[in-house]
Specification:
Length: 95
Amino acid sequence: MISLSTHVLDTGAGEPARGVEVKLYRGDDVVSQQQTDTDGRALLGEGLEPGIYRVAFQPPSRFFRRVELEVELEEGHYHVPLLVSPYSCASYRGS
């Protein structure tokens, strides 16, 4: 079984980014569309098939209007956080 979650942190404000729209794509198809909760977290999918997916964020940044990451998922749980400020962003494979 494959699952994917995310956590968006507004490092400029020093707090979770609430209400960020996050879409999960497989090819051109939207698999999931979520908004981060009050803790900046969202579950993007459970029971996903192995393959290549794109995670697209619309972060609270005056500069970064959209941040998109392409990931390859196999078995297990994946957590892909986004750290964003007005002028920088970063991601990593979390646990």
